[in-house]
């Protein structure tokens, strides 16, 4: 399990929490959803939190970023994974299909992803997938991820991004959830650490862009599967000739 503790936008939370989830932990994290999420969607998300094996809510470490680039990446998650792969930060892939977004975090967890709510200051993301393990049955479940963030004036042309990340993991198997509660203390620490890791992912990308935007663009351009339109939009944001 240790080598799979990779920090990714969705996969890290999903993968890390599934093998060590603990029942009862979700009680300590209250669900807070935007008021204008449709009732049908709200009901589905509420069912995830009500049956969550583990939940966490942590403050991310603040980091400096260009606001336009940060928001572009939040709004283009599939493209975001092209960036993180080009920079060798993570193995996570997200790609669009006719049925919506699919993801593969690179260590055995695959599934579908929905951006349930997107507005300045909040992202609500729901995933349903499975984790495959050698010689053992696949683990099926759901993850609800909520990212709340705000901007504080920082260096010239930059903002300080302050964020709070909440995640809820619900396993399909009640028996497995009950068995896994034995590792509750370790699971909660791991959940907290990996939730903070999602913010660190954006921080690493922001630092790479700050250090050498031309190099980031050159790496992306070398990837044949990067959508041309998004690549050009990102080039303009990077202000690379």
Task: Kindly describe this structure.
The chain is α+β, with helices and mostly antiparallel strands. It has one domain. Helix content is 39%, strand content 30%. The chain is built from 8 helices and 8 strands; from the N terminus they run ααββααββββββαααα. Strands 1, 2, 3, 4, 5, 6, 7 and 8 form an 8-stranded antiparallel β-sheet that branches. A hairpin with a 2-residue loop joins β3 and β4 (100-104). The chain starts with 10 loop residues before the first helix and ends with a helix. 37% of the residues are buried.
What are the salient characteristics of this protein?
241 residues; alpha+beta; eight-stranded antiparallel β-sheet; 8 helices; 30% strand
Task: Please outline the helices and strands.
Layout: H1 11-17, H2 39-50, E1 54-59, E2 63-65, H3 67-75, H4 77-86, E3 93-97, E4 100-104, E5 109-119, E6 122-133, E7 136-153, E8 159-171, H5 174-180, H6 184-211, H7 213-221, H8 228-238
